[in-house]
């Protein structure tokens, strides 16, 4: 292992993992933090990051039954530590594009600091934990401040959401893209929200382009969110770049649904959006942004700025 940063991360993570396990007492037979990481890594080609293998679920259940919920958090801290050690001391990162490696090491540094403390996010039901575990097992890749899952496809049901008149157009879009899978799906990670800005978002696109070189089978990238809603041009114009940059680079925007989870997500971080919603002047809607492989690569070639 030639990278000194990875050496340091591995040493710190191992110390945290040993400390977390030492206070647990006797673990159930056959259970170990490294074993849990191996179980979590054993997934199929289409198991996205939220899929937890049954063996990993059973391991956590045994610990909860024998040692209690607080012990589960300590065990999961240790497991993340062991995951960092395993990744940092292997050559798996070296096989990835340099831009991805740069950001992945940054995320591992943040995670080492996070597991030095207990937290209620250390739970299989918590999205933060699943994303952190995805990072240490390479089920997710760091892409700037965002994370990318390459075990994804776009639901075919999206075609029918355009209504009868819109179906032919959407079908033509997917024929042009090459199908519905595999695609890289981008995700926002709560611990990284402080880095949410236009330049860091653009860096995410450059990382996706780098992944396309690494994974030539990927047809493109997509993300689904309330912040792609064209209504934000009036409601929250400071977020226009989330939609405008990809669209100018050849991406497609497709309506998904009105209301639902978009209401909670859109209102929780903005008093203005909340007020407009309460006044009946704004209804959050989810859209899917789909950026095909070829136009995204062309955009990245013309926009090479960034961390590397």
Descriptive notes:
The chain is of the alpha+beta class. The chain has two domains: 4-137, no CATH class; 149-302, no CATH class. Helix content is 50%, strand content 12%. The protein is built from 13 helices and six strands. The protein has helices at residues 4-22, 33-41, 54-67, 69-88, 98-115, 127-136, 167-177, 198-214, 232-235, 241-248, 261-267, 271-278, 293-302, and strands spanning 141-143, 146-152, 183-188, 220-225, 252-258, 285-292. Strands 1-2-3-4-6-5 form a six-stranded mixed sheet, with helices on both faces. A hairpin with a 2-residue loop joins strand 1 and strand 2. Helix 2 (33-41) crosses helix 4 (69-88) and helix 8 (198-214) crosses helix 13 (293-302). The longest helix is centred in the first third of the chain and has 20 residues, at 69-88. It is globular, with a radius of gyration of 21 Å.
**Structural class determined from secondary elements:** alpha+beta
| Quaternary organisation of the protein chains | single chain
The secondary-structure element order is HHHHHHEEHEHEHHEHHEH
Unreliable stretches covering 5 or more consecutive residues = none
Task: Tell me the total number of β-strands.
Answer: 6
**Shape descriptor:** globular
Secondary structure blueprint with pairings:
Blueprint: H1 4-22, H2 33-41, H3 54-67, H4 69-88, H5 98-115, H6 127-136, E1 141-143, E2 146-152, H7 167-177, E3 183-188, H8 198-214, E4 220-225, H9 232-235, H10 241-248, E5 252-258, H11 261-267, H12 271-278, E6 285-292, H13 293-302
Parallel strand pairs: 3-4
Antiparallel strand pairs: 1-2, 2-3, 4-6, 5-6
């Amino acid at each position: 292992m030639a990278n000194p940063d990875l050496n340091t991360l591995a040493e710190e993570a191992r110390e945290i993992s040993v400390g977390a396990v030492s206070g647990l007492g006797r673990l159930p037979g056959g259970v170990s933090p490294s074993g849990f990481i191996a179980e979590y890594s054993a997934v199929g080609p289409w198991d996205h990051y939220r899929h937890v293998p049954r063996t990993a679920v059973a391991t956590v259940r045994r610990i909860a039954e024998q040692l209690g919920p607080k012990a589960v958090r300590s065990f999961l801290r240790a497991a993340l530590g062991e995951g960092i050690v395993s990744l940092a001391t292997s050559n798996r990162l070296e096989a990835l594009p340099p831009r991805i490696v740069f950001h992945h090491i940054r995320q591992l540094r943040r995670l080492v600091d996070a597991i030095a403390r207990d937290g209620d996010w250390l739970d299989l039901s918590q999205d933060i934990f699943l994303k952190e575990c995805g990072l240490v097992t390479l089920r997710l890749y760091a892409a700037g401040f965002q994370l990318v899952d390459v075990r994804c496809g776009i639901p075919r049901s999206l075609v029918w959401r355009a209504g009868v008149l819109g179906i032919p157009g959407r079908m033509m879009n997917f024929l042009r893209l090459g199908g519905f899978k595999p695609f890289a799906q981008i995700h926002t990670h709560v611990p990284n929200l402080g880095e949410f800005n236009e330049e860091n978002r653009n860096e995410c696109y450059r990382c996706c382009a780098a992944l396309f070189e690494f994974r030539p089978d990927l047809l493109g990238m997509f993300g689904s969110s309330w912040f792609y809603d064209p209504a934000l041009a009036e409601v929250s114009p400071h977020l226009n770049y989330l939609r405008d940059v990809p669209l100018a680079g050849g991406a497609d925007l497709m309506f998904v649904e009105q209301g639902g989870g978009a209401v909670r997500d859109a209102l929780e971080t903005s008093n203005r959006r909340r007020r407009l919603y309460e006044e009946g002047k704004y209804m959050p809607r989810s859209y899917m942004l789909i950026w095909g492989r070829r136009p995204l690569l062309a955009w990245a070639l013309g926009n090479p700025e960034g961390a590397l």
